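Hi Q.,

Before the meeting this afternoon, I wanted you to have the nicotinamide-adenine-dinucleotide prediction in hand. No need to reply - just skim if you have a minute. The sequence and ligand are here:
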Amino acid sequence: MKPLTINLPGGSYPILLEANCFALDEIKPLWQQRKVMIVTNQVVAPLYLAEVKRQFGDQPVFSCILPDGEDHKTVASWQLILDALAEHQFNRSDLLVSLGGGVICDMTGFAAASWMRGIDFIQIPTTLLSQIDASVGGKTGINHPHGKNLIGAFHQPRAVVINASTLNTLPTREFNAGIGEAIKYGGINQADFFYWLAAQAAAIKALEPDTLMSLITQCCQFKADIVEQDEKEQGVRALLNLGHTFGHAIETATEYSYLHGEAVALGLVMAAEMSAQQGYAGPEIRKMLENLLQAFDLPIMLDSPISADDLLNLMKSDKKVVNDQHRLILMRGLGDAFIADGLTDADILQTLNTCLQPGGSV
Ligand SMILES: NC(=O)c1ccc[n+]([C@@H]2O[C@H](COP(=O)([O-])OP(=O)(O)OC[C@H]3O[C@@H](n4cnc5c(N)ncnc54)[C@H](O)[C@@H]3O)[C@@H](O)[C@H]2O)c1
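Predicted structure with the ligand bound:
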């Protein structure tokens, strides 16, 4: 397929999407005659590491296999990547490659951003969420016990290489979590895509290859369009956080018992409720979101109670509080998200108390 390209002031890079192969051959100049370190995890390595290594031919390729899961998106895992780079004497002209879901993409990117003040890296995302979101756009990072992604850097990959057939081995719950991020794009500025997702739900759930390729292409293009306008989140890129400030707090409060995309689903419902409470949108937005989320078996209500005060406190450490006032992404309508500044603790508590009460859905 013709690659998508992200054009940024510091350089452009391709997103290579193929139905059934890793198109590393198409970017040979990027990796030829460089040492390569593939960072992956204990789940993905047995599935795809040998195949990806083969693509590099005679090239010296090392691998760093990390423990699996969001619980391991930590300083300790980042250190393991740096240790592997040190052990094999990687220098600025060498290359890191991520092979895995968003956790591996984010950690590999952060290791690339920090090793010797920045080396090149390539993303090979293998979950739906990472193919449509996490691998694209250059946000890298790890979690801190005080919250999600609190440690990180902007560092763009040199290429994103997507093999859609990797989704065939992805557990259904993980696949659906990825759809949470796709629905987010619908809420931000892609109402037509929202209706497309609803119309194609059966084909998407059946992993119909052409439909999946179309889904991934559309989402990568949506993300590229926003990142090209605002690489470092000084403005419009903040829209991509729709549902995320609530979602990150839910993830931390529940010690990551929800998958990231599931927490985003819950966060989207809260953002829709808050949009209505603040008088920006009617209640139908929340209902439409809930219907589509449920079509993909995503949660719209918490399965165990969390206190509103705890969530509020976690939201305060989510990088989006300015002068004690909250910045959240709300909606004026479906596909019409905007940055709402100056929201108070009381505004947030009103939404949390509505959503968290019995029968309040989230
Ligand atoms: N940088 C960004 O812009 C950005 C955007 C969105 C999300 N994120 C981050 O992405 C992370 C979530 O990513 P995720 O949902 O991909 O989770 P993940 O990386 O934990 O992957 C989900 C699970 O699927 C397994 N897996 C991966 N590929 C597989 C495959 N092909 N077959 C079978 N199993 C496979 C993983 O080992 C893991 O157990 C969060 O940490 C989130 O903060 C980052």
